[in-house]
Each structure stands twice: as C-alpha cells, then as structure tokens.
Write a structure and sequence with these properties.
InterPro entries: Nucleotide-bd_a/b_plait_sf (IPR012677), RBD_domain_sf (IPR035979)
Protein name: RNA-binding protein 43 isoform X1
Number of helices: 12
Largest sheet: 5 strands, antiparallel
Shape: globular
Mean pLDDT: 77
Order of helices and strands: HHEHEEHEEEHEEHHEHHEEHEHEEH
Strand order of the largest sheet: 2-3-1-5-4
Helix content: 40-55%
Low-confidence stretches: 1-10, 187-211
Length: 354
C-alpha cells in the first residue's frame, strides 16, 4: 500500500509533484490509471525519470501524487508545461505542480456569529473577515446570525484563528471592564454598575465560562471521525494527559475544545494534546481517501443491500470507516483499502440482484 508519510518528509516533498486533470477513478480503472501515470512520468520524452511511488486515487478526485527518485526530475517535469496522458488513444491534458497543501479541495462551513451580536455589529464583522481572508466565499448573513463560508482548508483555519482572536479581544475588554467596576465599587460602595448596558453579572458569567477554556482547533470532519473511531492513540492521548475534548461537528468542519479534566493536570498538557491531534490529523489528511455511494434515487431494497454489504465487509476491513446517512454512504480509509472495499461492495450487490 502506498503511503503519504514519505511524501510529507521535507526531502520527499521536494521530489513529489501533484498531477491534476486525471479521469475520475472507478473501482474498475483505478489501477490502470495509476500504471499509465507511472509510465508517462518515467518516459524521458516527458522529462521523466525513475518513479518511486504513485498515489492514485486520492481524496481529491482526478488528482495523483508522483514521487521521483531525484529532485531534479520533479523540477524538470514541472518545467515542462505540456503533459498529456494517452488513454485509449484519447489524450488527456494534465496539470503538474509542486506538492502544496493548497491543492486540496475546498470545504464548506456554517458559522453562527450570533455569539458576537451583543458586542459588535455582525455585518461589520463579516466585512472585516472578507477583507482579511479574500479567498473565502461568504453567503448572505441570515437574521439569526448564521452564515455559510466556503474556501480551502487553510483559509478556513485562518478564519477560525481570526474569530478566536476577535473573541479573545472582546473577552479581554470585558475583563478590564469588570476589573474597573470592582475597583469603582471598592471606592464607592453605594455606586452600582446596574445602569450599564452590559451588566457586570453577565460579564462575570461570560468570563467564568471562558477562562481556562483550553485549546481549540478545527479539523476536517472526515479526518476527525476517522481519528476518533479508528485510531486508538486519540483516546489514549486524552487519558494519558487527563484532558477532555468537547467536539462540535458542523458539516465538513469539526471544532474541538481541549480542556484539563482535573486540577493536577499540567498547564501545558492541553497545548501538547492539541499539537498531537494536529500532527496525527495532518498525517491522515494525506493518507485517507473517501468514496461516496449515493443512495438518493435508489429503491429501498437497493439501499438495504448496499448498507448490508458494507456491514458484512466491515470486519474484513477494520481500518475502513463506514458512515451511513439517509442520502449516501461514505467509505473512508487508505486508498487501496477503500478501492478494494468498494469493489467488493459492488460485487456483493450484483450477486444479490441476481
């Protein structure tokens, strides 16, 4: 099984190129396409050389990762602008570029900005975010404070950081306000902050809930679900460092808040666990692939057969995560496991139809 762990190493990443524009792989032609890609990039006519690894299919449809033995070959391949994969005598134009996190497909998230309503004008907040992160696409702001945002995973991460920074800034102002209020009360016991538009009591409540709120990070939901359900080190890390994770799944984005579970925890444990989860999720982001079987439009019997086939194969493929929904079934795992799993699902379905 091809592994992206080598690709992530600094030297390997310099020898790896991203190939886009490939035909979408199916359970029947994926291996053939991977072989054709390897042949194409080993051909000296295409400025190619010795290919160490080809990863296809990947989580991004139509994208492959090709790792060469020498860095110079990768550079030559990128320098040659015109690449064409010949498949059944039909040339397919390819785009070749350096390995970069930016190549991954965009994600969509729905934000609830209503938590900022008492402190800022939401429309102004959205305009500020648009200026800071112009690569993101924002939908119309709903009266409830909800807004849909779409962009690259890195852009969504920057959005998260901007919102956390904004929240921290507002919290600091609230703390200063309360501190001044306490000082004022000590100087003049009869005075009160009741006349203020923001009550001192509500601010104390806000601070008490937020202080010691731990570390936060944003993950791709598929990566998070695999990390939690299929990777034992996730639960082991939480137990070892005495921390708890509060998880909020919101479409393709999951937000995690990491907090110490008891008083004897080291103050740096939350940060260390956050770094561990980020490290493992980054590895999985490269290694995992998702295939989706659409259930919409199928008869109930066919839907049952698909789900039953997935259940039957689950024990045979312990490293494959199956997420069943009303409209579809997601199959998540390594590229080879997902390929074989879906192939066997289709085989079982055909047998049942007969």
């Amino acid at each position: 099984m091809a592994s992206m762990v080598n690709v992530r190493e600094s030297k390997a990443s310099e020898r790896t190129v991203v190939v886009a524009g490939l035909p979408v792989a199916t359970v029947f032609n994926a291996q053939l396409l991977a072989t054709l890609v390897k042949i194409h990039f080993q051909d000296s006519k295409n400025e190619g050389g010795v290919v160490e690894d080809v990863i296809y299919p990947t989580r991004t449809k139509g994208v492959a990762y090709v790792t060469f033995k020498e860095k110079k070959v990768a550079e030559n391949v990128i320098r040659k602008k015109n690449h064409c994969l010949v498949k059944k005598f039909v040339p397919t134009p390819l785009t070749v570029s350096h390995l970069s996190e930016e190549v991954f497909s965009s994600v969509k998230a729905i934000l609830d900005l209503s938590v900022f309503r008492s402190q800022v004008i939401l429309e102004s907040l959205v305009m500020d975010l648009k200026r800071k992160i112009p690569t993101l696409c924002f939908s119309h702001l709903e009266p409830s404070g909800r807004i849909s945002v779409q962009g690259s995973f890195l852009a969504i991460k920057r959005l998260k950081e901007s919102l956390l920074l904004k929240a921290s800034s507002l919290l600091e102002k609230n703390r200063n306000f309360i501190s001044e209020g306490k000082e004022w009360n000590r100087e003049s016991p009869r005075r009160s902050l009741q006349g203020s538009s923001i009550s001192s009591e509500s601010l104390r409540s806000s601070v008490s809930k937020t202080s010691g709120s731990g570390e936060m990070l944003v993950l791709d939901t598929d990566v998070f679900l695999y990390l939690k359900k299929k990777c034992g080190y996730y639960e082991r890390a939480l137990k070892k460092f005495h921390v708890l994770c509060q998880e909020r799944v919101d479409g393709e984005i999951t937000t995690i808040c990491i907090k110490s579970s008891h008083a004897i925890s080291h103050p740096n444990d939350e940060t260390y666990v956050k770094k561990l989860i980020e490290k493992y999720s980054h590895i999985l982001h490269f290694e995992l692939r998702k295939e989706t079987i659409i259930l919409d439009g199928k008869e109930n019997r066919e839907k049952r057969n698909i789900k039953l086939a997935c259940e039957q194969l689950n024990s045979k493929y312990p490293q494959v995560l199956i997420n069943s929904y009303k409209t579809h079934v997601d199959i998540i795992g390594s590229s080879s496991d997902v390929y074989l799993f879906k192939k066997e699902v289709m085989k079982l379905i055909r047998q049942k139809v007969r």
